[in-house]
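Journal club side-thread
Mid-discussion, someone asked how the predicted structure for our own chain would compare to the paper's figures. Pasting it here so we can look after the session.
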Amino acid sequence: MTGFDTAVDLAYLLAATAFVLGLHLMNSPATARRGNRLSAAGMALAVATTLAVVVHTGDITATGWAVLGAGVMLVSFRDKNHTPVIYWQIFLNCIFGMALFVAVSERPRLGRRVLAAIPDSRVKRALVFPFYSGSASGLFWTCTGIGLTQTAAWLWSRFFPTFNNLGDLSGSRKWIGAMCLYFFCYAMSAALLRRRLLSGVTSDLTWLISLIFIGCGSVIPFMIGYLLYFGDHWWDQDVYNWLVGNPFAWNDKSDMYLGVAVVWAGIIALFNLPWFIRSVRGFRPTRRKGEAKKRDYEIYENNETYEIS
């Protein structure tokens, strides 16, 4: 464990302690103001620590996710208001959404040192797979993070339907979920295109292909509608239909956007499923216990063979 990891763990522990002590102090009118400040300080420390982890590693840890979630839900329960949970799920889903582009841009095959550290047990490999470097592992981790955040926000709204801003929580969960689905579709489409048609392009540029896709998907349909139907009654009534490729567009056509995102995500996931299965099967240690010599392993991708040296 590095010094940074130790500092992060201590910061999260201090933040959690501040939350608990702050809530305890708020039970008494004499110390309620001090307890409120202490809880706020713990929340600020947890957010700052999570941001530091994101900047340092380019990802968010499971501990950060849990501590932030527990903190905002305690505040939400105290105030009988869903606003803290709204901010929490928007903040984390935005980070996980951006991490999708980082995941598809990671190297598709692992180096010898990483492979040598993979456990021999299949059960252990399944448990640690999301936490290793590599495109497939990063993709699995970010998708799991988005799913868990969405599920936690939904469960919170179901358990406490009488809290204020319930409609805002449901609406924000819906549009941020659709945005993440669009990000997934664009990122996986770019990864598929790079593997199938642009094999000469290195994987670390997949994020750039994704951004080009987002730009084209957001602008081209709108420009086609503008050139063909501008000024017509149909254009005035259904202009937002031409923004269906824009992941940031959200209005009364929200159900249509979400439907398109779900169908597209399902199709692109099926096309990328063989690659993901190959990556999972290739997640094995380079040598077994008892072998005297190291041996080179071959990793297959796009019908090509790579030798690890």
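Post-session note: Residues 166-196 form the longest helix (31 residues).
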